[in-house]
Specification:
- The chain has 165 residues and is mainly alpha-helical.
- Helix content is 71%, strand content 0%.
- It has 7 helices and no strands.
């Protein structure tokens, strides 16, 4: 395996691991009765792109898209891999082999910009959930979730660093 392929696989595994860690967190929150991410709505949103619709007044009221749950999971994990690529692009592949917490947490927290500035407005919730009944609560929840994702970036990289190459 050449270096590019090995690095790409390493980045993908970090992103998938971090996303799975965040999903475990979201599952815990769900079991505690806290409303969480509905992956099917991400798929519905992405499914409408094909027809040129990028923004909705309320994504839950938009027409369902065939395979939206599977598409939602694909977009969700592809985003996690992309953010892991951003982290290694900023911190370097040396970070991936000897991870430290601060860069992972910094990137994890910074990724909250994606839902606040892109996804939530496009799905009808407004910038940083401004059109929801409890914007401050939703912002804190998003920030917490993306902080958990940052911790997941670090932990996934640590686990991969332990595995002999």
């Amino acid at each position: 395996m050449n270096t590019f392929t090995a690095n790409a696989a390493h980045i993908a595994l970090i992103g998938m691991g971090a996303t799975a860690f965040m999903d475990a967190w979201l599952l815990l929150l769900q079991r505690l009765g806290v409303p969480t991410l509905r992956v099917a709505m991400i798929g519905r949103w992405a499914g409408h792109w094909y027809h040129g619709t990028w923004q909705h007044a309320a994504i839950a009221k938009a027409a369902p898209v065939r395979g939206e749950l599977a598409l939602g999971w694909l977009v969700h994990y592809a985003s996690g891999i992309t953010f892991a690529g951003l982290l290694t692009g900023l911190a370097g592949m040396d970070w991936a082999r000897q991870p430290t917490l601060l860069p992972a947490m910094g990137v994890g927290i910074a990724t909250v910009a994606a839902p606040w500035l892109v996804m939530q407005p496009a799905m009808g919730a407004g910038i940083a959930s401004s059109r929801t009944p409890a914007p401050a609560k939703n912002r804190l929840r998003s920030l917490a979730n993306h902080s958990v994702f940052g911790l997941g970036l670090y932990l996934a990289a640590v686990v991969l660093a332990w595995i002999p190459q």
